[in-house]
Amino acid sequence: MRIGVDFDNTIVQYDSLFHRLAVARLGVPQDTAANKTAVRDWLRAQGREDEWTALQGVAYGPEILGAEAFSGVKECFRGWAEAGHSIFVVSHKTRTPYRGEPYDLHEAALRWLTGKGFLTAEPTGLSRDQIFFELTKADKLARIDALDCDWFIDDLPELLSELSFPARPNRLLFGSAAEGPWQNAQSWAEIWAIVR
Fold first, then answer.
1. Is 88's pLDDT higher than 70?
2. Residues 6+ apart with CB under 8 A from 158
3. How many whole angstroms separate alpha carbon 107 and alpha carbon 112?
4. Model pTM?
5. For the residues of 50-109, what is the DSSP string, one character each?
6. 121: confidence class by pLDDT, cuts 50, 70, 90
């Protein structure tokens, strides 16, 4: 079986990192809910959209190692590898942030995968040639199609509902109860129960 997985907010969980950075760097109140959406909404309510955009560049760039993998994701990858499945990471990610310092976001993501043990000696089923950072959503969809995936797992319903989404992969929406042409999973334990 060939399994494609998105990177940001599917493998990597950024909530506590965004909260920590926003409190320390931007004066967001400590009692703001410790999730990315709450931080974004607080900054937007203050008319600080540009600071929110720049904060994303810092979180996805030099501070990315402060983010954690979702619980169970590495175990799921190991199980798939042991079963002989091929795993691919396919992400729509710009090379540099839209605002702020021109950090290399692709290099930062690879550093995270290495630092968190996905690209080391552990048997997670991943190697560098199975990781793709595409510059546009259209390129991401084309890559999923070219990889001939049996499953694709993503946190964005708008991607999975694209009219140009390839016909072959079963779609699995992670972390949302939104309805569409996909199955839903709220955790990596649920993903493991569905995709084995």
1. yes
2. none
3. 9
4. 0.94
5. HHHHHHHHHHHTTTGGGSEEPTTHHHHHHHHHHTT-EEEEEEE--SS-SSSS---HHHHH
6. low
Q: Locate the domains of the chain by residue range.
A: 2-13+69-194, 15-66
Distances (CA, A) of 60 to 45, 50, 126: 23, 16, 21
Backbone CA torsion sign across 70, 72, 74, 77? negative
Give the tens place of pLDDT for each residue, 169-178: 999 999 999 9
At the topology level, CATH places domain 2-13+69-194 in Rossmann fold (3.40.50)
Residues 6+ apart with CB under 8 A from 21: 55, 58, 59, 63, 66
> Dihedral of CA 19/23/28/30: which sign?
positive
Euclidean distance between CA atoms 130 and 88, whole angstroms: 5
Q: What is the DSSP string of 158-178?
A: HHHT-TTS-SSSEEEEES---
